[in-house]
Amino acid sequence: MATSALYTHGLALSNANLPRLPATVACPKYDRAILRPGIVHIGLGNFHRAHQAWYIHRLMQQGLAQDWAIIGASVREQDQVMRDRLLSQDHLTTLIRLSPEGTSAEVIGPMIDYLPIEDGNAALVRQLADPGIRIVSLTITEGGYFISMTEDGLDLAHPDIKHDIHHPEHPRTVFGAIVAALATRRTSGAGPFTVLSCDNLRGNGNIARQAVTTLAQATDPALANWIEEQCSFPNSMVDCIVPATGPIEIALAQGFGVDDAAPVTHENYRQWVIEDDFCVGRPELEKVGAIITPNVHAYEAMKIRILNAGHQVLANVGELMSVETIAECVAHPVISQFFNKVEHEEIAPYVSPVPGMTPAQYINEVAQRFSNPEIRDTTRRVAFDGSSRHPEFILPIIRDALNGGGSIEGLALVEALWARMCAGVRDDGTTIKANDPDWQRLSEIAQKSEQRPTIWLEQPQVYGDLVEDPVFKPAFCRWLRMLWSEGSLASLQAYLDQAQNSK
């Protein structure tokens, strides 16, 4: 019998109860009372706790990194629920590893506090200004970087960025808080810190640097110069599939004997590739499996183009065809063929190998990971915020393919599937609930695309000059018309037949 079936109720997760948890649950061996903070992590959700926090935990289990404990933070009011849950259990988290071979659970404890979430972010700025904080790490999603789609760099016209320019002492954004804290550290002599982006953006460190320095330049050019000279912004690549938490995951933790209000499930795979560019030191992450290398870009390009883009290949058609999870998409005979065709023929040609791994090998590895039936990663979660994910994950590949004279038929179909999904109605007539920060606008455009497909491409912040591309535009319009008239399954089959007939 699986361990998770042994308990129907768990013991409340807390420092006091750690010694009483079942022996099958691995627990911290270090004294959490002596941990000292060295990292503030902003955007503390499931992924951070299953990935970056786990690496720090592993070091602490070896008696290392005792001065690199994590303080959680957020600038989003909706994260208050997570804060309350973690505060109630002494910031401990149960991680549940899911694999076809079985499940296991461990409790990790490198996080020691979660800052108040408040207007003006005063507590966050104060904590970031503390000289003991040497790394500020981020998982704020692709949309959290305020990237301008019409110009290079930070979107200075965004209302929250404009607010931070005019009210730098009461910032709304992550970057406003970072700039305010660095201003204090410069004045006090506390010195710089490292900003470590862990989001799925190619050149995420460069993007974070540009966001911070551009915002500082708008308020204090001397400060911007100091940040550029003193602070560091290493690029990194992170990889681990971490589903959202719901009643099933809470019940899984209880099955291991742990009553955790915010457990995290994850696959049996992690990778963290980081540039060694830390201005005031770092934990010895290479001792627990992180790859420290000057060549992060090749790793992140492979992961973003094959895994993250691959998620978008599957998620929108899965939503339209009422296929609930990514694993079920991979098990679907037609969707899986579509995925493999697009990955091998339209994505892999624009991905370079990394040491020990070719693009084809990585595609096969990703397909195997996606197929894990124990990971109930929903197509809805993966399809969320397509307005940030498609410009970052899919469109750069399309541009490379167009420049290189390669096929973009399958990728054009992926974009048409996203447009059709945003119309808010599945092929079976059921409703797709709002699933993008810009859902209302996207949905209105998508619904109009049934009569005029090009209206979807007339979003300059997304497609730019692709709206008039003589190869991409007709392919996109042809697929979107077919999706509206014949449905997703027939469209996928037409693509597969087209590819077969062209041989």
From TrEMBL:
Keywords: Oxidoreductase. The keyword Oxidoreductase applies. It comes from the Bacteria. InterPro entries: 6-PGluconate_DH-like_C_sf (IPR008927), 6PGD_dom2 (IPR013328), Mannitol_DH (IPR000669), Mannitol_DH/Oxidoreductase (IPR050988), Mannitol_DH_C (IPR013118), Mannitol_DH_N (IPR013131), NAD(P)-bd_dom_sf (IPR036291). Residues 295-473 form the Mannitol dehydrogenase C-terminal domain. Residues 38-287 form the Mannitol dehydrogenase N-terminal domain. One of its GO terms (molecular function) is oxidoreductase activity, acting on the CH-OH group of donors, NAD or NADP as acceptor. The keyword Oxidoreductase applies. Pfam families: Mannitol_dh, Mannitol_dh_C. PANTHER family: MANNITOL DEHYDROGENASE 2-RELATED, MANNITOL DEHYDROGENASE DSF1-RELATED. This is Mannitol 2-dehydrogenase. It comes from Epibacterium ulvae.
